[in-house]
């Protein structure tokens, strides 16, 4: 009996000690016991798979005025524009103050200044957004202004200043910088294996990059992947599949949860539209606008490393994302790019394509040489489109499916022009090819000639 009592007493002591130890861990580290309660844990597997926000919202062009010419630079093995943005994280950037506004002459002089590198975003972001991307707390609290260009001096005598510029209203902001050096920026610029001579011209609707000479770019072919509708409903509805109602009309399928959420999938066009009528809060500032857009975009396609924020309209609360290849945007057969997100008081809407570039495949397609931009402008004018009609003009990749293989996509470089709020290729606007007939070689135009089997993550880290 005494022995059994002793065993009971020892077990009670062990139980009490164990209880205290467990209580201690719970009191001092509750997070590990709460991961199933919808807590936002940044180290979760889901977050690890997402393309980071500073990669999706990053410059897509670098233009360097090296003292002689302005040149557009790109490296298809190393995303130098993204790496330049990361380099600025190490600098201590002060408060941005307005230098001037609505002065086209001063603006053109600045963006053509010698010994200057420009990091160009395809759309306006904002000073607080830049602060968030750089991890700069001071900039996140600064007075917010939109911009789309960062200008950095490559002259060590002038590296104590940094400029932000807005093409829409010709406004420039300047801030002092500590800890900056031109060396890492120049080192990245010299890694470019695509080097195109350009000139920045001011037109009615903003700044347009003119290619001074014919430019030769590669064609690409990619295997395309898609998802079953059930994969999207799992991500977007956040509910038990038994609660989802579905119906079909022809080749269009509709999935809904009561009157709160609806997904329409058009299998003929491979386009989907998701409406969330419970999401009625409209972003109150630009940083929140971009953060919420990023969260929605990566919830749709969480690992698209070549996806970039392409166009943002604060007035219409609309964000558009496109995929990129070789630093140029891909124009698919849709009016909204890859993903379009709209916020409103009636709920948010997300339009997206069920087409994602996955694996590059060998291609025997010959390189394409495009005409200089001045020739493109002349032919647009001859076709009845004046310079004042042109809202935007840029080189991009045209997406076409191969006739004998729907899972393979060919990407062909051409000029794209925005007129009357519609993007079309130069060929579609004019009926004329944007390509030159004769081959062209220039010391100012260096084009990568490596195999087409490179990974599509060349736009990534």
UniProtKB/TrEMBL annotation:
Q: Which residues form the Regulatory protein YycH domain?
A: 10-425
A Pfam family this protein belongs to?
A: YycH
Stretch list, region Disordered: 440-461
> Which regions span the lipid bilayer?
6-27
Q: Which InterPro entries match?
A: YycH
What keywords are assigned to this protein?
Membrane, Transmembrane, Transmembrane helix
Official protein name in the record: Regulatory protein YycH domain-containing protein
Organism in which the protein naturally occurs: Companilactobacillus ginsenosidimutans
């Amino acid at each position: 009996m005494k022995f059994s009592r002793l065993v009971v007493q020892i077990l009670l002591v062990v139980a009490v000690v164990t209880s205290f130890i467990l209580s201690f861990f719970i009191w001092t580290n509750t997070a590990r016991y709460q991961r199933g309660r919808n807590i936002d844990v940044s180290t979760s597997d889901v977050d690890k798979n997402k393309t980071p926000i500073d990669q999706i919202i990053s410059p897509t062009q670098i233009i360097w005025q090296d003292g002689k010419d302005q040149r557009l630079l790109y490296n298809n093995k190393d995303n130098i524009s993204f790496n330049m943005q990361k380099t600025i994280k190490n600098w201590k950037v002060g408060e941005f103050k307005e230098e001037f506004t609505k002065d086209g002459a001063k603006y053109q002089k600045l963006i053509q200044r010698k010994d200057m590198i420009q990091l160009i975003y395809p759309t306006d972001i904002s000073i607080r957004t830049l602060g968030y991307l750089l991890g700069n707390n001071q900039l996140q609290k600064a007075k917010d202004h939109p911009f789309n260009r960062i200008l950095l001096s490559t002259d060590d005598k002038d590296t104590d200043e940094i400029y932000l510029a807005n093409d829409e209203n010709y406004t420039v902001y300047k801030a002092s910088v500590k800890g900056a050096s031109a060396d890492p920026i120049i080192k990245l610029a010299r890694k470019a294996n695509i080097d195109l001579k350009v000139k920045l011209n001011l037109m009615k609707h903003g700044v347009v990059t003119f290619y001074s000479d014919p430019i030769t770019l590669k064609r690409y072919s990619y295997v395309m992947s898609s998802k079953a509708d059930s994969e999207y409903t799992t991500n977007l509805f956040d509910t038990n599949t038994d609660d989802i109602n579905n119906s079909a009309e022809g080749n269009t399928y509709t999935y809904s949860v009561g009157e709160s959420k609806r997904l329409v999938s058009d299998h003929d066009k491979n386009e989907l539209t998701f409406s969330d009528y419970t999401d009625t809060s409209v972003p109150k500032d630009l940083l929140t606008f971009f953060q919420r857009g990023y969260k929605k975009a990566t919830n749709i396609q969480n690992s698209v490393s070549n996806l970039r924020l392409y166009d943002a309209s604060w007035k219409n609360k609309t964000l558009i994302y496109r995929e990129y290849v070789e630093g140029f945007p891909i124009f698919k057969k849709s009016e909204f790019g890859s993903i379009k997100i709209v916020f409103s008081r009636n709920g948010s809407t997300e339009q997206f394509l069920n087409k994602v570039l996955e694996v590059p495949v060998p291609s025997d397609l010959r390189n394409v040489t495009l005409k200089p931009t001045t020739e493109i402008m002349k032919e647009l004018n001859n076709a009845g489109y004046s310079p004042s009609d042109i809202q935007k003009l840029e080189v991009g990749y045209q997406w076409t499916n191969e006739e004998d293989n729907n899972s393979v996509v060919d990407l062909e470089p051409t000029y794209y022009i925005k007129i009357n709020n519609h993007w079309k290729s130069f060929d579609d606007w004019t009926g004329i090819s944007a390509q030159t007939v004769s081959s062209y070689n220039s010391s100012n135009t260096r084009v990568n000639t490596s195999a087409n089997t490179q990974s599509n993550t060349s736009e990534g880290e």
